Amino acid sequence: MKRKTRMWSNLSAKIASIPMLITAVGVFILCVAYSIALSFTPSRYFPKFDFIGFDQYIRLWTTDRWTISVYNLLIFGVLFIGFCLVIGFILAVLIDRNIRMEGVFRTIFLYPYALSFVVTGLIWQWMMDPALGIQNVVRNLGWESFNFAPLTSTEYAIYGVVIAAVWQGTGLIMCLMLAGLRGIDREIWKAARVDGIPLWRTYVFIIIPMIRPVIVTAVVLKAISVVRVYDLVVAQTGGGPGIATEVPAKFVIDHFTERGNVAIAMAAATMMLLPVLLLVGPWVYNEYVRRARA
């Protein structure tokens, strides 16, 4: 009887969600399945459903451009997520200390997140231009040996992209961390002070474990944005110099549109899908399935 009651509860909400469910299944799942199927074919400009096994994947992983793009994505992802978490947490801690003009500082730190990656890429392209940006300004102030032009170097260009991405993405992490800190009972702070626990130990051993769900959510959100990073690279470097800042998403788009190699583009897209599933799957299970059972 209880099962029937649960089944018919919130019936109007369930009926209203049917169009979205159909869209999700029809657009997302079917399109993903179609894309995966194309990766096992020799399709060029048009689909050609002749099964050739894993030939496209073998060809993909023996292509220097793809392996370099994956390597760049690993560097970008580790540094981007790491710096966003650390800087975002520090900013949240500083704001949580009841500083003056808190609203102004929150707005300033969050403002870059309101900008698109295209605008962010163009801004930092100018700022890292040796003739126009930071290097030129500092040299005009008297420090003539100062160098800051990472985008002109094949070795350091990817780090220039990381700087722009961290500047743009730290504000969201700050807001998530601040919300987590504000949700902690003030009695815990009082107890820590009474026990004489140093402030840094309070944060490391008490506060951070308590906001673990917020940290996990922040990591998942940023990891997904890492996998699909495209517009920032195109706007800031175009993948250059050479292919020094090539990323998997740009590899997929270029092969799908400019080179007309649909099969290898879909193989690359499928490889991009795997880390997303590995990240989102455990998170969804932990947040919804396991909690629902508990």
How would you summarize the topology of this molecule?
Layout: H1 2-8, H2 11-16, H3 18-38, H4 55-61, H5 64-96, H6 102-114, H7 117-127, H8 134-140, H9 157-182, H10 186-194, H11 199-210, H12 212-227, H13 231-236, H14 248-257, H15 262-293
Helix pairs in contact: 3-15, 4-15, 5-9, 5-12, 6-9, 7-9, 9-12, 12-15, 14-15
Q: Would you kindly provide a written description of the structure presented here, covering whatever features stand out?
A:
The structure is a single chain. This protein has 294 residues and is mainly alpha-helical. It has a single domain, classed as MetI-like fold, CATH 1.10.3720.10. It is flat. Helices cover 73% and strands 0% of the residues. α3 packs across α15 and α4 packs across α15 (262-293). The model has no long low-confidence stretch (mean pLDDT 88). The chain contains 15 helices and no strands. It is a multi-pass membrane protein.
Can you give me a brief rundown of this structure?
The protein is an all-alpha fold and 294 residues long.
The CATH architecture can be given as: Orthogonal Bundle
What radius of gyration results from the CA coordinates?
24 Å
According to DSSP, the number of beta strands is 0
How many helices? 15
Give the helix/strand class: mainly alpha
The biggest beta sheet is recorded as: none
What is the straight-line distance between the termini?
Answer: 21 Å
In helices, the fraction of residues equals over 70%
Domain count: 1
How big a fraction of the residues is strand?
A: under 5%
User: What quaternary form is this?
Assistant: single chain
Name the CATH class.
Mainly Alpha
Global geometry: flat
H/E element order: HHHHHHHHHHHHHHH
CATH fold naming: MetI-like fold
* Regions with little confidence, pLDDT below 50 for 5+ residues: none
Mean pLDDT: 88
Question: What is the CATH homology-level superfamily?
Answer: MetI-like
